[in-house]
Design brief:
With about 550 residues, the chain is of the alpha/beta class. The strands form 4 sheets. Strands 9-16-17-18-19-20-21 form a 7-stranded parallel beta sheet. The chain has a 6-stranded mixed beta sheet with strand order 4-3-8-22-23-24, with helices on one face. Strands 10-11-12-13-15-14 form a 6-stranded mixed beta sheet, sandwiched between helices. Strand 23 and strand 24 form a beta hairpin. Helix 10 crosses helix 11 (about 360-370) and helix 13 (about 410-420) crosses helix 16 (about 455-465).
């Protein structure tokens, strides 16, 4: 255990809150302590119980850890917070609950019975690889369940989904509708199957009524409460504008003004041509930069562009073909087009947070960032960066380009990756240990609602490299618990330029803290899956308090 540390600002101060009697994870290099003190929204000291008790005064509030663990609050570096909140009101089709076509149709039929005729029914999160039919449902199979409402169900990856006939009609999609650039409207023998992929999803989006501002504020708050209950004090919305265009900016502003945005947000504008980044720029929005206020609850700092799709859905772009489907995936844009987009956004000062999963897409994005003039201080990011080569990693390190991976993908989709790509490629995806050892800062994240946002599942995945079916994939890429926590806290802070304020529990750092129900260091990885957050602080203030410890 390290010696006690105290900030200069904390010298002589009486602590407002002290946490004692447990295990405090200070950071990867700093190790553990027993207790810490909070004042003015920041950590003022860490050390032994006796050292921290000496800072208590008559008004100090106490949290007795009783052997529990306190960590820097989790940072969710890649998720879709507003869509997650909106999705809480959709039909849940995730594989944890839905593994048969009949159960899917039962749930959709029940939702349709509760919905006025003609209004949309929306489902989220199905995984065709986990269904008993081992494929996407067809338009005819959805029509049999929901004939009188437009129905659209989104696959877990968010890159494709299936529409029934009423939804296809509402979107103006017929058998002669051409595939848009970077999108696919699937047909078999000239007939629509209902499967809509990648940029063709814009046709469906345009037909679905957009939520109003009040509904979006409710969704931001609902998602934030879910995250706070899991130990997150900061998060990212990775493609703002994907659901309701510019109205999402107003929704976030209103949520912050009304105290209904619970996490510190790093907000990333939708940068595809159909997105809002260009319109936001014309409206006067400018990127947050280092030196601007790090305490701003909403920081608009980055732009996202899609280079490809998903490996589970066969649309991530690879040089070598998949083992199934006779395809190499989908590049969303020709190289010249995406390079021009990256250069333009780089010149405007945005951080580039670019989606690329397959090796061909990573090459396209990496070469575009290099051509645009990427430097370490810009901290451009390749989101997902799943099937990356050693040569790619060397080039990324030279330019300070960050990987933002989702280790939980290996847990939820690893067996599907093996089926689609074979063990040689699949087992070495999302190489967390290689990144750390080479000096990268991989910020673990979930891509929620694509995967579960539960951080304890993600920790399990990083430490074991085990899928939900028990397959161990690339065990040489396993991390220690401390390394996994580092990736889920400090690396996330680094990816959004605030590592000097968050991601460690050291004097002077923001008191963004999660108190966990158990000491992870005393558990087997399998036991992580039963851990929960008891208390989540943002700047020393509780945004979640399961047992009223600071009430």
């Amino acid at each position: 255990m390290k010696h006690a540390a105290r900030s200069d600002e904390g010298a002589g101060l009486t602590a407002e809150i002290i946490l004692t009697g447990g295990v405090v994870f200070r950071g990867l290099a700093e190790g553990m302590a027993q207790a810490l003190a909070i004042g003015g929204g920041r950590v003022i000291a860490v050390g032994t119980d006796e050292e921290i008790e000496s800072l208590a005064g008559p008004g100090t509030r106490r949290v007795a850890l009783d052997g529990r663990m306190a960590i820097p609050a989790f940072h969710e570096a890649h998720m879709h917070l507003l869509p997650y909140g909106l999705g809480l009101g959709m039909v849940n089709l995730r594989a944890e609950e839905v593994r048969s076509l009949e159960e899917m149709r039962r749930r959709l039929r029940a939702a349709a019975e509760r919905t006025p005729r003609g209004e949309w029914v929306l489902g989220r999160g199905y995984d065709h690889g986990a269904l008993d039919i081992a494929r996407h449902p067809t338009v005819a199979e959805l029509d049999a369940a929901v004939p009188d409402h437009p129905l659209f169900i989104m696959r877990s990856c968010g890159h494709m989904g299936v529409a029934n006939s009423a939804a296809l009609r509402a979107a103006g999609i017929g058998h002669n509708t051409p595939d848009p650039e970077g999108g696919v409207i699937e047909r078999r023998d000239g007939a629509l199957t209902g499967l809509i992929q990648e940029r063709a999803l814009a046709l469906i989006k345009a037909a679905i009524p957009a939520p109003d501002t009040a509904r979006m504020v409710e969704a931001i708050e609902a998602a934030g409460r879910r995250l706070a209950a899991l130990g997150f004090a900061s998060a990212t919305d990775m493609n703002v504008g994907m659901t309701a265009d510019m109205a999402e900016l107003a929704a976030y502003a209103r949520a912050a003004e009304e105290g209904r945005c619970l996490q510190r947000m790093w907000l990333v504008l939708a940068g595809n041509p159909e997105g809002i980044a260009a319109e936001a720029w014309q409206a006067g929005m400018r990127p947050w930069r280092p030196g601007d206020d790090p305490d701003a609850l909403l920081r608009w700092g980055a732009v996202k562009v899609f280079a490809d799709g998903s490996a589970g859905g066969l649309t991530a772009a690879f040089f070598d073909p998949y083992l199934v489907g006779n395809t190499t995936g989908v590049l969303t844009f020709p190289t010249g087009t995406i390079h021009a987009l990256l250069a333009a956004y780089h010149a405007q000062g945005w951080q580039l947070d670019i989606h690329a999963i397959g090796d061909a897409a990573i090459e396209q994005v990496l070469s575009g960032m290099e051509a645009a003039g990427a430097t370490p201080e810009r901290r451009h990011r390749i989101e997902h960066c799943g099937f990356v080569t050693p040569a790619h990693r060397r080039r990324m390190r030279a330019r300070g380009i960050l990987p933002v991976p989702q280790p939980v993908f290996m847990y939820e989709f690893g067996d599907l990756y093996r089926r689609n790509l074979g063990p040689a490629r699949a087992d070495h995806a999302y190489p967390m240990r290689s990144w750390l050892e080479e000096g990268h800062h991989p910020s673990a994240s979930s891509d929620c609602p694509v995967s579960t946002v539960d951080p304890f599942v993600n920790l399990f995945a990083m430490v074991t490299r085990r899928t939900n079916q028990g397959t161990v994939m690339g065990p040489e890429e396993r991390l220690s618990l401390a390394e996994a926590l580092h990736c889920y806290t400090w690396c996330g802070a680094y990816s959004s330029f605030v590592e000097h304020r968050r991601g460690r529990l050291e004097p002077g750092m923001d008191a963004d803290i999660a108190v966990l129900s158990r000491d992870l260091t005393a558990l087997s990885p399998e036991e992580y899956l039963g851990v929960e957050a008891h208390l989540t602080l943002r700047g020393g203030l509780p945004i979640f308090d399961r047992h009223g410890e600071l009430a």
